């Protein structure tokens, strides 16, 4: 392929002036030779340009008093006014705290769940049993949070929900899970497990399957129990995968799924459930405080970017080649 | 003998996993049971795994009202056309980016990567969608997520893994990139095409946030947002009141609405599940 390209540029061996012309025609040549490849990129790149780069221009309104009629450029500059308002507002600190806290809960509860499940599943020898259990565990991942949220609310309803009915049989008073600010984060974390733990096992199962079976063989010869085998072979074998996924998860600390929180949230528990994304939606789209909401979003985006870059550095340090 | 005794000893493992699977699926079964039970049984909290005093009044009521059906139709349109749009934008681009000889490849890859790293703010996105006059159209659901950077990279790494000799020999015979792509590459990529289309299709079926942000016309809402509204409002108000509403417990109606929304997913899930897993495994080789 390269040879053919060199052939097509006889000007390369000419005088300096011609060489310049040749380089230009080199670009042109590539453009013509790979015209379909460039054409293939047009829809996707136009999308990225429009929705990821042109929108950056819109972020400017975080530094302006934006009015719809005046447009992004026409609105007056106010510098860091909106960021100052944010730093002074208790709401902002609340949603920031909640965003980080819910992420920490997820890290503590929802992160280990698929590891445990994957280790257990990989011990199962009955293939039929394994397949059925996996199918059941994956299912919630494919259901939208509106539906999952609706199911959770119905299940936990203090009057008609089956959970409180069962608690009642044990003589326990109905618990208002969804409107109690102590219980809500628990429900949130467990719902993360419900939705994602099964699906999350796939990647760990693949890592476990890649472990050399000879290691288990040798351990069995030495009379190591199943638990010891898991502790000394399986877990060390998937350490790399765990580290990468953990670090990736840390990179998303500024971000809690909007749909997840929004569909479980109600005004009674705003103090523990209001996060950045729901706050941006409410102040920006519902109350039309465009500049303020953009400032919050920009804050989140920039911190998120820094976190991901940091995380990539760490992954590279771990010797895993980095994410890009 | 040894293996049998070992198997016997592992029964707690099987029991625990079975319990996990049961707990995962139980909420769905319970809601299905509630949707088919009588108001009296629901209020009394008697419904567990099985419908009590079985009836389909809630479903009848929802179908007669029709709003959820319109929303369901919208979701079908959004999913079918949207999957096609996403694939048409993603597949050829992934093919191009997989070609090392492409000039400008690092720049293009950076553009995609950047989109993955920096989350665009909701308000700038809203302003753009408004500027493009996409508010209250399905385009507002499709375009803001037209190409998933993740899916693009998964596909790209799949194309990079294909043996280059095949395409080179075709190129020797004078076939253009277009011909090679359509005649040679695509037919060899059915597995990844299926997996990625399914990822897009599920995301579109569950599309929620974009519709919530950008669509306010009731008759254009997808089923997810319609369901959200139903779950939030007292139902007699939403379904126009009337005497029939009095006899149906709101919980039962909500449960029926939930079941109507997930039914299509539940129906196709068992057949498609293995394609999803394949897609994840291809992606995890080098994300």
General description of the model:
The complex is a heterodimer of chains A (324) and B (287). With 324 residues, chain A is mostly helical. Chain A has a single domain, classed as MetI-like (MetI-like fold, Orthogonal Bundle). Helix content of chain A is 73%, strand content 1%. In chain A, strands 1-2 form a two-stranded antiparallel ribbon. In chain A, α9 runs parallel beside α15 and α14 runs antiparallel to α18. Chain A is globular, with a radius of gyration of 27 Å. Chain B has helices spanning 2-9, 11-35, 39-44, 57-65, 67-97, 105-117, 122-131, 139-142, 149-160, 164-172, 177-188, 190-205, 209-214, 223-232, 235-238, 243-247, 250-285. In chain B, α5 packs antiparallel against α12, α10 packs antiparallel against α11 (177-188) and α14 crosses α17 (250-285). Chain B is globular and about 75 Å long. The two termini of chain B are 45 Å apart. Residues 240-246 of chain B have low confidence and may be disordered. The chains are: A mainly alpha (324), B mainly alpha (287). Chains A and B meet through α2, α3, α7, α8 and α9 of A and α2, α5, α6, α7 and α11 of B.
Helical run tally of chain B: 17
Sheet/helix structural class of chain B? mainly alpha
Q: Which CATH architecture of chain A?
A: Orthogonal Bundle
Major sheet of chain A: order of its strands? 1-2
Roughly how many Å apart are the termini of chain A? 27 Å
| Amount of beta strand of chain B | under 5%
Oligomerization status of the protein chains: heterodimer
The domain count of chain A comes to 1
Q: Low-confidence segments of chain A, ≥5 residues, pLDDT <50?
A: 1-20
Which sequence of SSEs, written as H and E, runs from N to C of chain B?
HHHHHHHHHHHHHHHHH
Largest beta-sheet characterization of chain A: 2 strands, antiparallel
CATH evolutionary superfamily of chain A: MetI-like
Query: Which chains have the largest interface?
Result: A-B, 96 and 93 residues
Q: Mean pLDDT across all residues of chain A, rounded? A: 87
């Amino acid at each position: 392929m390269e040879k053919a390209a060199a052939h097509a540029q006889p000007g390369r061996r000419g005088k300096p002036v011609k060489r310049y012309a040749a380089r230009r025609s080199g670009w042109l040549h590539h453009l013509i030779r790979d015209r379909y490849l460039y054409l293939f990129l047009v829809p996707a790149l136009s999308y990225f340009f429009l929705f990821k780069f042109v929108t950056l221009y819109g972020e400017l309104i975080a530094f302006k008093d934006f009015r719809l009629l005046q447009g992004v450029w026409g609105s007056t500059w106010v510098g860091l006014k909106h960021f100052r308002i944010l730093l002074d507002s208790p709401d902002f600190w609340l949603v920031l705290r909640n965003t980080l806290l819910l992420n920490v809960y997820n890290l503590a509860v929802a992160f280990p769940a698929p590891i445990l499940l994957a280790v257990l599943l990989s011990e199962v020898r009955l293939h039929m049993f394994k397949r059925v259990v996996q199918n059941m565990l994956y299912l919630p991942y494919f259901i939208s949070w509106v539906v999952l949220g609706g199911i959770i609310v119905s299940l936990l309803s203090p009057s008609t929900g089956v959970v409180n009915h069962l608690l009642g049989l044990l003589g326990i008073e109905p618990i208002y899970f969804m409107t109690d600010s102590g219980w809500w984060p628990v429900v949130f974390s467990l719902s993360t497990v419900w939705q994602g733990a099964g699906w999350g096992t796939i990647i760990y199962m693949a890592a476990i399957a890649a472990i050399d079976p000879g290691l288990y063989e040798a351990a069995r010869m030495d009379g190591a129990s199943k638990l010891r085998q898991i502790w000394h072979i399986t877990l060390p074998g998937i350490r790399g995968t765990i580290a990468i996924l953990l670090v990736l998860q840390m990179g998303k600390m500024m971000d809690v799924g909007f749909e997840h929180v929004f569909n479980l949230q109600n005004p009674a528990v705003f103090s523990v459930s209001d996060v950045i994304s729901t706050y941006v939606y409410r102040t920006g789209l519902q109350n039309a405080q465009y500049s303020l909401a953009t400032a919050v979003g920009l804050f989140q985006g920039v911190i998120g970017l820094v976190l991901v870059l940091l995380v990539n550095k760490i992954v590279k340090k771990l010797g895993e080649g980095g994410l890009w | 003998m040894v293996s049998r005794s070992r198997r016997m000893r592992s029964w707690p493992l099987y029991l625990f996993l079975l319990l996990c699977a049961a707990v995962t699926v139980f909420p769905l079964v319970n809601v299905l049971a509630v949707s088919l039970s009588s108001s009296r049984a629901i209020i009394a909290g008697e419904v567990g795994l099985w419908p009590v005093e079985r009836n389909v009044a809630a479903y009848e009521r929802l179908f007669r009202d029709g709003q959820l059906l319109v929303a369901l139709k919208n979701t079908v349109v959004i999913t079918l056309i949207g999957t096609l749009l996403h694939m048409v934008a993603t597949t050829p681009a992934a093919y191009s980016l997989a070609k090392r000889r492409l000039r400008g490849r690092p720049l293009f890859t950076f553009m995609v990567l950047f989109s993955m790293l920096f989350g665009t703010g909701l308000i700038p996105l809203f302003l753009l969608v408004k500027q493009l006059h996409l508010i209250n159209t399905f385009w507002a659901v499709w375009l803001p997520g037209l190409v998933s950077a993740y899916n693009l990279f998964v596909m790209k790494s799949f194309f990079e893994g294909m043996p280059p000799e095949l395409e080179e020999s075709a190129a020797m015979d004078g076939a253009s990139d277009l011909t090679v792509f359509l005649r040679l590459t695509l037919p060899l990529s059915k597995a990844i095409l299926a997996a990625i289309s399914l990822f897009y299709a599920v995301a579109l079926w569950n599309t929620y946030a974009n519709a919530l942000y950008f669509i306010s016309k009731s008759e254009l809402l997808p089923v997810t947002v319609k369901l959200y509204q139903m779950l939030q409002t007292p139902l007699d108000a939403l379904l126009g009141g009337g005497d029939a509403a009095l006899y149906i417990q709101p919980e039962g109606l909500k449960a029926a609405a939930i079941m109507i929304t997930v039914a299509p997913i539940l129906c196709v899930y068992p057949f498609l599940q293995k394609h999803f897993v394949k897609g994840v495994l291809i992606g995890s080789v080098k994300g």
